[in-house]
Write a structure and sequence with these properties.
Largest sheet: 12 strands, mixed
Radius of gyration: 17 Å
Distance between the termini: 26 Å
Number of strands: 12
Organism: Chengkuizengella axinellae
Strand order of the largest sheet: 10-6-7-8-9-5-1-2-3-4-12-11
Strand content: 25-35%
Protein name: DUF4280 domain-containing protein
Shape: globular
Number of helices: 3
Helix content: 25-40%
Order of helices and strands: HEEEEEHEEEEEHEE
């Protein structure tokens, strides 16, 4: 991760880029709030992830700084994805990343923004690794979540099932509202420059 200067690049972006780098050459779905982007044969360098857009076949890129979470096609061992948590005393890491990362505990059921419910399997510097009920792996940036709901792992199995169902119902409702409002084609939100599609 390089020299740790306790700024947003060290505690938020470097851990996320390091995690993404473990999947270079593979296919990944990236989540930006309620929207997502699937890239084929990804690469990541200088905090930019690149690949072929699965929806239109065009070479595309997106900034790591805007990624809420990503879902790889082929999960990796969580030990390859997280760096040890570092306690910061200054800079953005102390006031942004540290407090929210420390809220997560292995075993907790969480939703982050519109994604979830998932169960936390590992927590590292700026990164939370989770799995859903199907075994799919989701890696979150703790700095990018707009809203976070954490249900403690001590909840009973019955309560956890009820919580998951309630969250899923709310998510399905929000998705329908978004899809109805979003009448424009996805391609209208893209800007092409020199053959590269930029997402924003």
């Amino acid at each position: 991760m390089g020299y740790f200067q306790e700024n947003v690049c060290d505690c938020c972006l470097c851990p996320l880029q390091c995690a993404i780098k473990q999947f270079e050459g593979e296919n990944i779905t990236f989540f930006y709030g309620i929207t997502n982007l699937t890239l084929i044969g990804i690469s990541v360098e200088d905090f930019i992830v690149s690949g072929i857009n699965s929806s239109n076949g065009l070479p595309s890129c997106a900034p790591v700084s805007q990624i809420l979470a990503f879902q790889p096609d082929n999960p990796k061992p969580q030990s390859d994805l997280v760096k040890p948590i570092q306690k910061s005393v200054k800079g953005e890491c102390a006031c942004i990343e540290d407090p929210i990362t420390n809220k997560f505990k292995v075993g907790d059921i969480v939703t982050i923004s519109t994604l979830g419910p998932v169960q936390v399997t590992a927590v590292g510097e700026g990164i939370v690794v989770t799995n859903d009920d199907s075994g799919d792996q989701f890696i979150f940036s703790t700095c990018s979540g707009v809203s976070i709901v954490i249900f403690n792992s001590s909840d009973t199995t019955t309560n956890q099932a009820a919580i998951k169902q309630d969250i899923k119902s709310n998510w399905d409702k929000e998705s329908r509202i978004f899809n109805q409002a979003n009448t424009q084609s996805k391609t209208q939100s893209l800007h092409s420059k020199n053959g590269i599609v930029l997402f924003y």
